[in-house]
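User: What would this chain look like folded?
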Amino acid sequence: MNCILLPAPHFAATSATAQISSKAHIEHINRVLGLSVGDSIKIGQLGGRLGSAVIAQMTPSTVFLQEVQLTLTPPPKLDVTVVLALPRPKVLRRLIIDMTALGVRDIILINSYRTQKSYWQSPMLKRLDEFVLEGLQQGVDTIAPSIRLQKRFKPFVEDELPSLMTGRAVVAHPESELSFTQYAQQLADKATDDVSTSLLTTSKALLPSMVFIGAEGGWIDYEVDLLCAKGCQTIHLGPRILRTEAAVNAILGQWVL
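Assistant: Here's the prediction, encoded as structure tokens.
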């Protein structure tokens, strides 16, 4: 973890002090960071600001902080909603951590034809907050993404998707004739030449606001057709078939860069 995030109750209301009581955090401070009394440490308040503090006292169960300064605004979120077919439980953990660290604003975990029913009973779904915290501490952020569970694909696409599509939407699909690069180039070619619009603003506007990514095996044709009927565009990421984790990171890299 690149910073330690604490909930608001761990900060004193009337003084620049705080305390760390999580066993995982204390172990990280001792074994990984190797800090001691008087050392500075990067911290943040969940849902608030980032900053630093000085270790005032250490016990086996609590680390007391002083000179707490939370002055830094967390980094902005990526302007994208990722709709992800619920993957295998072990993969889910890694994906939630990665998407949170990258700054995804909204995550929707949805059922698909190739999603096994047993995945919805996995205890991993009850640990999403834990994975989000790990991702936030990795990415040095304090604002958690919104995560929704959608167990019914067709009702979501037909009833909810139209109101959620605030911009363009793409579906990662290996059989698409259009690559992500070609898709972006086509949009750029259609964009008007406005000298008052910066290159950065233009490039951001060309990125879709929603991305659909399937689990292992991808989407079936019925699902792709249903999404396209609602205005989504299929894209591929090249000639190679990627694992879900690789596809997620490859696509989100467009926003990060």
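Helices lie at 23-33, 89-102, 128-139, 153-164, 180-190, 199-206, 221-229, 244-256. If you want, I can go into more detail on any region.
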